[in-house]
Amino acid sequence: MIRLVGLAFALGLGLQLGFAPARAEIVRARYAVSLVGLHIGDAAAVGSLDSNKYRIDFNAKLTGVAALVADVRMALTSTGSMRSGSLAPATYATTSGNSQETRTVRMALVGGNVKAVDISPPWEDRDGRVPVTESHRRNVLDPTSAFIMAVPNGQPLVGPSACNRRIPVYDGFVRFDITLMYTGTRTVSIPGYSGPVSVCAARYTPIAGHKRDSRSTRFMAENRQIQVWLAPVEGAHVVVPLRVELMTLAGEALIEAVEFSVEPSSVTAATH
Fold first, then answer.
1. In sequence order, what are the residues at sequence separation of 6 or more whose Cβ sits closer than 8 angstroms to the Cβ of residue 13?
2. What is the pLDDT tens value at each position of the chain, 272 positions in all?
């Protein structure tokens, strides 16, 4: 479940920023998570963005009946800077666990290149995996920095320019690409936003760190039932995911925003 939630958000949230507000803007989103139509969890994201730095926090947990089966929780935080209209991640940290185990991953990056990774306790299941090379750790986004997606200046916030892109992601262990492709436009209405969204088909491409004979990796690489809805944020000229749906080995999973807001803040984004 931890990898499912992390992957789904990486699909929708691979984002580059191209704006310079005078003050920090706070983006908040709350999501409901369901599997085969059953509500199994909640997630929340908060991003603090100013003219040259950002901080993004994301939390998710199982709820209801699902929590009785597995007490799964995860918390992720990323900080970095914005240069020439793109994200430059600096730090990434995540803690995920259940009733049996908790694992922490910390990563340091400079200019999109990974400089150090610490995983505690370390992953011991390394046999049969595609090796992660130094080149795989260059020009990447961590999973949480993949949260806010820029649209080039002069391009519309709804349509192909919102979707069409490749997102290189590295989580400290697995390297993969997410490719988004525009398929259409819909109109939605939720607390905090009412209007058009861009609908993107998504494809998952494993690069390294995965097991060569992994059934789940092969399934996701061949999966043609992945879709992301992106809503425009006018002031920042970015798009934000409101919905991610994908077929999994356990059935159809859905992460859907139930609240969304953008508000100014006099406190600038922290990078510590």
1. 45, 143, 144, 146, 147, 148, 149, 241
2. 444 444 454 444 333 333 334 457 788 999 999 999 999 999 999 988 776 788 899 999 987 655 545 668 899 999 988 765 577 899 999 999 877 889 999 999 998 999 999 999 988 777 889 999 999 999 999 998 887 777 887 899 999 999 999 999 999 999 999 999 999 999 999 999 899 999 999 999 999 999 999 999 999 999 999 999 998 877 667 788 899 999 999 999 999 999 998 888 655 444 44
Asked whether the beta carbons of 190 and 242 are under 8 A apart, the reply is yes
Could you tell me the sign of the dihedral formed by the alpha carbons of 266, 148, 42, 193, in that order? Answer: positive
C-alpha span between 176 and 169 (Å, rounded): 5
Q: Can you read off the two tokens belonging to residue 177?
A: 């690409």
Torsion of CA 45, 39, 167, 269, to 10 degrees: 0
pTM: 0.85
Structural contact between residues 157 and 234, judged by C-beta atoms closer than 8 angstroms: yes
The first and second tokens of residue 259, run together, are 């609240």
First to last CA, the chain: 29
- Say if residue 152 is preceded by a cis peptide, omega within 30 of 0: no
CA distances for 247 relative to 102, 208, 241, angstroms = 27, 22, 18
Type of residue numbered 137: R
Pairwise CA distance, residues 236 & 199, whole Å:
20
